[in-house]
Each structure stands twice: as structure tokens, then as C-alpha cells.
Design brief:
heterodimer, A: alpha/beta, Rossmann fold, B: alpha+beta, Anthranilate synthase, 20-stranded antiparallel β-sheet, 20 strands, about 30% helix
Chain lengths: ~180, ~400
């Protein structure tokens, strides 16, 4: 079962439908976690949402509790939530991307995706990861081709993954393929 | 349109009735056997009542329905969003009517009623004439608008909202004859979701362009609008399309609403049935063009009417995105009640099929005052002055009726 934590976003249920192609999905609000269900899940997904990772201490607690024990995937705010808990700093960007389609490219550091592969993806974020960012385990694996902003992370050892863009958006061309890679990782 | 003696008599009486635009004409509803004034405490009873509509399906299926509206505050409360105390005129939070007589106004006029003596049900009262006692005034001037705009822009940069709609209101002192106003409006601006309500103590005239819910059997469609272009001598529908397509700001704003409505539908639809049936097309109106998409899905089994309404309302395209966080920002900012504005008007019938619109482009007359509310979106690339002016274009065809 996939446990999808909703940060009260207006895109979460697109993600639910996308994930439903691979397993049963259970969705709950970030402040109404079902402890038994989450303990029985194979994958925990942090949804996108408004605000910053600091606004969601409950989700940070779940991250720390299940890191290394379960596969975790973060989308947009969820991606930032993971980085925030891995000593990353999340800052405002000058140019804001809401409803924007960008081309992104896979880096050599990726284990799941072919390096140099590129995708068109949908973005909804006003914040980004502050760089340079160094971590032994959490590697940046995709970047925006235009601005170089970090678009994906992979932590192979703990099976933790994240995307700054929205794989479930109609603006993302290979959303299914991208999610499939995570599920089979 | 043909004149019909019964309709003429109805228009010139004081009898309450409702008109709703349909594809090839208008439906008129009257002889209301029930009028339900909604508030937070009786809303669940209302949903129970709707379920009974299905159980007691009578021979008078044509009028076995409730028609009316949910106001903005009621819709917020239904999804557990609180609205702080605001200046308001104490207009009801929602009203629904059960009609006994339905008149189909097409090329020909057909009248059906569950009442035998419906032709004689008139009181000797005369309808109100339109009288304007003061000119229209706007409730937020450009400077205050700029202030609000800048505050919301900050929240956009912080990621608390991705798009938010600032509401302004035009108000005057007047009484109106909604019938003549509505038909005048339909000559120039017959939008797909137009409607009119005339009741004893209030009336509403609307040329809403936006279908929020159209549910037929197991299928549901929504047609969000995001993007407005003013009409000039040099514009036409093709030029409008290429304007929207090449305008990054309009495109991004529209994309966001499409993903948002897909997600709202996904809450209540079977997995992988939510599809964009028509992406980004242009509808033409008297003073403006709109950028529209249509999204469709197949409903899950065993849903209640309330499930569908709370998933879809208030309509995302008239609020902003993401819904909950944006509603909270709006409600903290707005000092005056939105009333019916960005609520939803429509009907639910005995098949539990329904059609609802977003209440925008609407005049409400209550307690001797007419009110027209409009809103436009703050996204990251918009400017206060442009959006303020866009609000005026939206109100113009209604202000011109006075």
C-alpha cells in the first residue's frame, strides 16, 4: 500500500490517481495520520502544498521515523521537506514558477534514470533548494536546463526520492514513466 | 421570441420565479411549493431531503427537483473553512426552491405543471420598476486595491498561494425589474450559465459564463475559465486564441486551474477516468473573450450529493490555488461578505443529476441596493493596475443595464 500524505494541496488527488496504477493508495491530511496504516505501507509519499517545510513539523517527524525503514517519495513541498531534514536550506527564488512547463535533464549522479535524458515537466514552486548543497547520500539527480535549479534527488541507500516538479501535472509528459521508476526502485 | 399570454401575466405580476439558460433556450420555474433558507445548521437536512427526492419519484418528474443557490460562506463552511465576521447585509446563506410549474421557452413555449389551477395563481400585486437612486460606487479604490495586491504578492513569493483573486464590489441604491433587465442582458450577452431569480424581497440577474458541475448519470464535467481579454475593434476569436496561447502569464494561470480542477474531480471520480476533454479554447462575449477548458470524469459509486458539492465548491477558478490556504488568506483580507458571489447556482433533480455554475457576473438587489462583485487573479506576473481594470471590464456589461 502507498500512504499519501496530503499537505492540503489542490493537486494531491492527481497524484493519487497516478499512484493508483501501481498499488492501493491511502490518502490522509498531514494532521490526521493513521499510524497503523502508515506502518503497513510500502511507500510513503509527501504531497506538494503551500508554505515551507518548517510549517509541517508532523511530516518532518514522519520522515525521521521512517527514514531507512520505508521507501519515501516527496513531490514539490515534499521534495523540499526531505532536503530540509537533510540539512538543506529552502529559500525563495527570484523567478517564480507556477503553472510553468520546463525542460529538465538527468545528471550522471542518477541511478534510476538515464543520464542526459530530458523531460518536459510542470512546475509550481516559489521556493527552491539553496546551493551549493552537499550530502553524501542525498544526491541531486535532475536539473532545470535553463536555470540549473535542482529538480530531483535520490538517496539510493535509504530509498528516498524527490521531485521538485509535479509528475502528476498534465504539463509533465512522462509522469507515468517517472513514477514507475520510483515504484520499481 | 413569441409572446405568451401566461408568461406576460407572470412577468407583470409579483410572483416569484427563476429562469435558467439551457442550450437551446430557457427554462422557467415557478409555483414554488417549498422554499428552504439554508444555514449551517439545516444544511445536512437539506442533503437528506435531496436523497428523498430519489425515493419518492413521482409522476411529476419534470418538477421533482430543487433549484437555487449556495452562498460563498456556506460553501466555505461545508469544507470546514471559517469566515471571520464581516460587514454584511444579512442576506441568506443559501436558498432552494421546489417548483411545481416548469415552462420551457424554446421556439415554442411549453408549460407543464403539477397544479391544476396554475394559470390562475396570481396575486393582484405589480412588479417593481427599475429606479436608480444613486450612482455606482466601488468599495475598494485603486490605492487600497494596490495595498491588498502587494500583500498577496508577498504571500505568493512565500509560496502560501499560487494564485489568488481579489474581489471588488460596485454598489448603488436602486430597485430593479429583473425580468426586463435579464432579457435585455440576454440580447447582448447570453452566456451559457445565465440565470435570474425574482423573489418578494430580493432578485438576482446573472450572465455567469462558467459551468462548475454538470452531472449526468455517472459522468461529471467542469468547464473552468481562466483568462480574460478585452474586445476591441481589432480583436477577433482567432486573434484572441493566439493572444492567450502566446501570453505566458495567461497560460500559466490557466494551466494551474486545469490541474486544480483535475484534482478536485479526482477526489470523486474513479481512478484514471479524469480526462481533459477540451484543452484551452476561446469563448466570445459582448465585451470580452474567455479562455476555457473542459474536464470530465466518471464518478465513484455510492457518492452522496454532499460529497460531490464539497469536492468541487467553491469553484477553484474563482478563488485561486491551492484552495484551502487561498480561501483562508482571502477570508482574513476581505472586510465585506462576498454574499452569493463565487457561490454556486443550479439544480439537483430526482435522478440526483445536477448542474451548477460559479456565481460571477451577477447583480443582486436586496434591501434597496444593487451589488455587482468582480474579481481577478493575482499571479506572479500580474500588475495591480491591469487587474483593477480587468475587474471593470467584467462589470461593464452589467453596469450598462442600469
Amino acid at each position: 500500500m502507498i500512504y499519501l500524505i496530503d499537505h492540503q494541496d489542490s493537486f494531491t488527488f492527481n497524484l493519487e490517481h497516478l499512484l493508483s496504477n501501481y498499488d492501493d493508495v491511502f490518502v490522509s491530511n498531514y494532521f490526521e495520520i493513521d499510524n497503523i496504516k502508515i506502518a503497513h505501507s510500502n511507500l510513503i509519499v509527501f504531497s506538494s502544498g503551500p508554505g515551507t517545510p518548517e510549517n509541517y513539523p508532523q511530516t518532518s517527524r514522519i520522515y525521521k521515523k521512517f527514514k531507512g525503514k520505508k521507501k519515501i517519495l516527496g513531490i514539490c513541498l515534499g521534495f523540499q521537506q526531505i532536503l530540509y531534514n537533510e540539512k538543506g536550506r529552502i529559500i525563495r527564488q527570484n523567478k517564480i514558477y507556477h503553472g510553468h512547463q520546463s525542460k529538465i535533464k538527468v545528471l550522471k549522479s542518477s541511478v534510476l534514470f538515464k543520464p542526459n535524458q530530458s523531460f518536459k515537466v510542470g512546475r509550481y514552486h516559489s521556493l527552491k533548494l539553496k546551493e551549493p548543497y552537499y550530502s553524501k547520500e542525498t544526491l541531486i539527480t535532475m536539473r532545470c536546463m535553463e536555470t540549473r535549479v535542482a529538480m530531483a534527488i535520490e538517496n539510493k541507500k535509504d530509498k528516498i526520492y524527490g521531485f521538485q516538479f509535479h509528475p502528476e501535472s498534465f504539463l509533465t509528459e512522462n509522469g507515468k514513466y517517472i513514477i514507475q521508476k520510483i515504484l520499481s526502485a | 421570441m413569441k409572446k405568451d399570454p401566461y408568461l406576460e401575466k407572470l412577468y407583470h405580476s409579483k410572483k416569484p420565479f427563476i429562469i435558467y439558460k439551457v442550450k437551446n433556450g430557457y427554462d422557467l420555474f415557478t409555483d414554488f411549493s417549498e422554499k428552504i433558507i439554508l444555514h449551517n445548521k439545516n444544511i445536512d437536512n437539506f442533503f437528506k431531503k435531496i436523497r428523498k427526492l430519489k425515493k419518492f419519484r413521482s409522476s411529476n418528474k419534470f418538477c421533482s427537483m430543487y433549484i437555487g443557490f449556495f452562498g460563498y460562506q456556506l460553501l466555505c463552511n461545508l469544507i470546514h473553512v471559517k469566515v471571520p465576521k464581516q460587514k454584511n447585509s444579512h442576506f441568506p446563506m443559501g436558498i432552494f426552491y421546489k417548483p411545481e410549474t416548469v415552462i420551457k421557452i424554446r421556439k415554442n413555449i411549453t408549460i407543464r405543471s403539477s397544479l391544476k389551477n396554475f394559470r390562475n395563481l396570481f396575486e393582484n400585486k405589480i412588479f417593481n420598476q427599475t429606479r436608480i437612486l444613486s450612482p455606482f460606487k466601488i468599495n475598494i479604490d485603486i490605492n487600497r486595491y494596490k495595498n491588498i495586491f502587494n500583500q498577496f504578492s508577498k504571500n505568493l513569493r512565500k509560496g502560501k498561494t499560487y494564485q489568488i483573486k481579489i474581489c471588488t464590489k460596485y454598489k448603488n441604491k436602486s430597485t430593479i425589474d429583473p425580468v426586463s433587465m435579464f432579457w435585455k442582458l440576454m440580447k447582448t450577452n447570453a452566456s451559457p450559465e445565465s440565470f435570474m431569480i425574482r423573489d418578494n424581497n430580493y432578485c438576482i440577474v446573472s450572465c455567469s459564463p462558467e459551468t462548475l458541475i454538470e452531472k449526468k448519470g455517472k459522468f461529471i464535467t467542469t468547464k473552468p475559465i481562466a483568462g480574460t481579454l478585452r474586445k476591441t475593434k481589432n480583436t477577433n476569436i482567432r486573434k484572441a486564441y493566439s493572444f492567450f496561447k502566446n501570453n505566458i502569464k495567461e497560460t500559466k494561470e490557466h494551466n494551474m486551474i486545469v490541474d486544480m480542477e483535475r484534482s478536485d474531480l479526482s477526489k470523486i471520480c474513479k481512478y484514471n477516468t479524469v480526462k481533459i476533454s477540451k484543452l484551452k479554447y476561446v469563448e466570445e462575449y459582448r465585451h470580452l473573450y474567455h479562455y476555457v477548458s473542459a474536464i470530465k470524469g466518471e464518478l465513484k459509486k455510492n457518492l452522496t450529493t454532499k460529497d460531490i458539492i464539497t469536492a468541487m465548491m467553491p469553484g477553484g477558478s474563482v478563488i485561486g490555488c491551492p484552495k484551502i490556504s487561498t480561501l483562508n488568506l482571502l477570508n482574513r483580507q476581505e472586510k465585506e461578505s462576498r454574499n452569493i458571489y463565487t457561490g454556486a447556482f443550479g439544480y439537483i433533480n430526482s435522478e440526483l443529476d445536477m448542474r451548477f455554475n460559479n456565481i460571477i457576473r451577477t447583480i443582486i438587489n436586496f434591501k434597496g441596493s444593487s451589488e455587482i462583485a468582480v474579481a481577478s487573479g493575482v499571479v506572479i506576473d500580474s500588475t495591480a493596475k491591469k487587474e483593477f481594470n480587468e475587474n471593470y471590464i467584467k462589470a461593464k456589461s452589467l453596469i450598462n443595464l442600469f
